[in-house]
Specification:
It comes from Shimia litoralis. Keywords: Cytoplasm, DNA damage, DNA recombination, DNA repair, DNA-binding. It is found in: Cytoplasm. Its main location: cytoplasm. By secondary structure, this protein is of the alpha+beta class. The chain folds into three domains: about 5-65 and about 150-160, Beta Barrel (OB fold (Dihydrolipoamide Acetyltransferase, E2P)), CATH 2.40.50; about 65-135, 5' to 3' exonuclease, C-terminal subdomain (DNA polymerase, domain 1); about 170-220, Helicase, Ruva Protein, domain 3 (Orthogonal Bundle). It is built from ten helices and five strands, in the order E-E-E-H-E-E-H-H-H-H-H-H-H-H-H. Strands 1-2-3-5-4 form a five-stranded mixed β-barrel. Helix 3 (about 85-105) crosses helix 6 (about 130-145) and helix 3 crosses helix 9 (about 190-205). The longest helix is centred in the middle third of the chain and has 22 residues, at about 85-105. The protein is globular, with a radius of gyration of 18 Å.
Length: about 220
């Protein structure tokens, strides 16, 4: 299993890039969002990867963060969602957007992805809603463990005259994970805590942990 690719982009198409790793070229398929974040041809890049192996097919799919990769794997576990559909959803919403949409039961957001109909979007939410809190909580530890950017080998870096890696800006997955952890420590259930954090993140996409916690607590407060 190939879990990470580090090298130089040799060429790109609409949905994949060829990454040269010490003379061996790997074709890696990516979402529209990831493709837009990648550097130009000839520059260095590092991507987390997931490999799909079938009788007549072997493909690599690339992600800028481990959280995105985790959502890809979960989306593909849903009946009717293959790699292409998963990348379409991630390309439209991003990893955090997928988590929020599933947690909030937002069918409209899921079916905004190309090729995703309302029945499939509903199935995604039904099958993954209970798993969303755990993935949201996992986001912070993944970001801390990997810095959301896989490192290039030292010998490759030494040969580079330009900056080694260009990836998408860091997201607030760590803040959301910390807020979720704080709420569950206060006694809230994982599902209701995740819903509140998702709503708080939608209100302020740049909110830090403390702001997310305050907003989520306000949303969780008894009404009336």
């Amino acid at each position: 299993m190939i879990g990470k690719i580090s090298g130089r982009i040799e060429y790109r198409t609409a949905d994949h890039v060829l990454i040269d790793v010490r003379g061996v070229g790997y074709i890696v398929y990516c979402s529209d969002r990831t493709m837009a974040a990648l550097p130009s041809n000839g520059e260095a890049v590092a991507l987390y990867t997931d490999m799909v192996v079938r009788e007549d097919l072997m493909q690599l799919f690339g992600f800028t963060t481990l959280l995105e990769k985790e959502w890809h794997r979960l989306l593909m576990s849903v009946q009717g969602i293959g790699a292409k559909a998963s990348l379409a959803i991630l390309g439209t919403l991003g990893a955090e957007g997928v988590g929020r949409a599933i947690t909030l039961g937002d069918v409209t957001a899921i079916k905004a992805a190309k090729g995703i109909g309302p029945k499939t979007a509903q199935r995604v939410i039904i099958e993954l809603k209970d798993k969303a809190p755990a993935v949201m909580a996992l986001g912070g530890s993944l970001a801390q463990a990997a810095g959301d950017v896989p490192a290039l080998p030292e010998d490759v870096i030494e040969e580079m005259p330009q900056p080694p890696v260009k990836v998408a800006p860091a997201t607030s997955s760590s803040s959301q994970a910390e807020a979720l952890s704080a709420l569950t420590n206060l006694g809230y259930g994982p599902s209701e805590a995740a819903t509140a954090v998702a709503q708080a993140a939608m209100e302020d996409t740049t909110a830090e942990t403390s702001t997310l916690i305050r907003t989520a607590l306000r949303l969780l407060a008894p009404k009336g």
